[in-house]
Amino acid sequence: MRRLSIHRPLQKVRNPARHLRSLACWADSFADDYPEREPKYINFKLATLDRLVEGPTAKLEWQRAAVEQLIKAAQHLVAARPADEQGKSWVAMLLGYPSLWSSEVTVFFDREYFNRFIALPHNDASICQQLGITLPANFIECAYLTQWQDEDDDGQLQQYSEQRFVIYEASFLAE
């Protein structure tokens, strides 16, 4: 279950092992279960407590475990894809770092829409390398930096940036 810590953003994460077990159950729930076709895509947000994977309370080992569960969920979706969906839908993970709570596993049904995500200017960053994760051979990782401006609570214009990663099926390039 996704939970946002609005009133306690700095409180220590209680029983992280329970949260990680719940996240593993979430990833396993995709085994043998491929989603119904949608117009462009369907996404499944990372189902965990926000403080577990981002902010000052998050630990690198928890972030690593969360990304590993996203990869596991994506692998389950690839394995569950019916034969009539081969070449018509693609599984990808969209991750933000350090804002991992916004991460998701996405099944794209529209090739042109998916191309928008991997056609952005890439850089050499790697979330898998940063977290010490070995990416399965059937997936490719690309990264890009996104920047935006927004006003803070005092009305001052602030500059923000986030490294974003797209991890997608290697078979997409072959088609």
Structural class: alpha+beta
Number of beta strands: 5
- Spatial extent as radius of gyration: 17 Å
What's the helical proportion of residues?
A: 25-40%
Strand order of the largest sheet: 1-3-2-5-4
Number of domains: 1
| End-to-end gap | 35 Å
Largest sheet features: 5 strands, antiparallel
The dominant shape is: globular
Low-confidence region ranges: none
- The chain-level mean pLDDT equals 87
What sequence of helices (H) and strands (E) makes up the elements?
HEHHEEHHEEH
In percent terms, what proportion of residues is strand?
25-35%
Number of helices: 6
Please tag this protein with its features.
alpha+beta, globular, 175 residues, 5 strands, single chain, 25% strand
What does this structure look like?
The chain is about 30% helix and about 25% strand. By secondary structure, the protein is of the alpha+beta class. The chain has one domain. Strands 1-3-2-5-4 form a five-stranded antiparallel beta sheet, with helices on both faces. Helix 1 packs parallel to helix 3. The longest helix is centred in the middle third of the chain and has 21 residues, at about 60-80.
